[in-house]
Design goal:
about 250 residues, alpha/beta, eight-stranded parallel beta barrel, 11 helices, globular
Length: about 250
């Protein structure tokens, strides 16, 4: 199982939001590139980078920082936020980015998703973010009437080979991800699913590992790394180790 550190960039700074709310923002670093270097030093193989300005405005705004991160770390980087046309996908991938995440466009423009998969294949990831099971778009500001599992199935039918699922109500709360909903979504599709939102401790990583058999292959960790609740080296170690059998509770 992969542990993927999250770097959310807003106005050139590394920040974390609570449930996607701009009014509840914490700035953790003025230098996203330095943060990326730290995660590499601690053993990261992949990075999850979100352009928050792009997510809210619909237009990618922090690509220069992404370029610098790739140049400084040479890690596999997946990028989302404001990627809503083929020209932007081409521009992002030309920087050395491994994968692009389609969120809002996955809901609003299925033909675009189909074209993107045809053109860029495995480089396309669908980012499905939900509140109470319903997909939210445009930086999570607008909740649609689209069911998350239904959208996941549509994405797979269109050829998308990987899905990131985030329960917005858990994001930034440090209370653990929504394992139940993620498991249901993973069982509904036959592609790898990345779990995101609310990772709070090492037990969450162990819990995610127990769901690998359903297709959950990676975890994205954000706030828990920045607050020190999870040490990345230890998280990666746990993710690599074989699961220990559960001990039965004594009566």
């Amino acid at each position: 199982m992969y542990v993927i550190p999250a770097i959310d960039i807003r106005k050139g700074r590394c920040v974390r939001l609570v449930q996607g709310d701009l009014r509840d923002e914490t700035v953790y670093s003025q230098e996203p590139v330095s943060v990326a270097k730290l995660w590499k030093l601690k053993g990261a193989k992949r990075l999850h980078v979100i352009d928050l300005d792009g997510a809210f405005s619909g237009k990618l705004a922090n690509l220069d920082y992404v370029k610098e991160i790739i140049k400084a770390t040479d890690l596999r980087v997946q990028v989302g936020g404001g990627i809503r046309d083929l020209k932007t996908i081409e521009k992002v991938l030309s920087t050395g980015v491994t994968s692009v995440i389609l969120g809002t466009s996955a809901v609003q423009n299925k033909e675009f998703v189909k074209e993107a998969v045809k053109e860029y294949g495995k480089s396309i990831i669908a980012g499905i973010d939900a509140r109470k099971g319903m997909v939210a778009i445009k930086g999570w500001k607008q909740v649609t009437k689209v069911n998350a599992i239904d959208l996941a199935r549509e994405m797979v039918e269109l050829g998308v080979g990987q899905i990131i699922f985030t329960d917005i109500q858990r994001d930034g709360m440090l209370e653990g991800p929504n394992f139940k909903s993620t498991k249901e979504l993973a069982r509904a599709v036959k592609v790898p699913v990345i779990i995101s939102g609310g990772m709070s401790g090492y037990r969450d990583i162990e819990h995610a590992k127990r769901l690998e058999k359903y297709g959950i292959t990676s975890v994205i960790i954000g706030k828990a790394l920045y607050t020190g609740k999870i040490d990345l080296k230890q998280a990666i170690k746990i993710a690599k180790e074989p699961l220990q059998p559960r001990t039965k509770k004594k009566k």
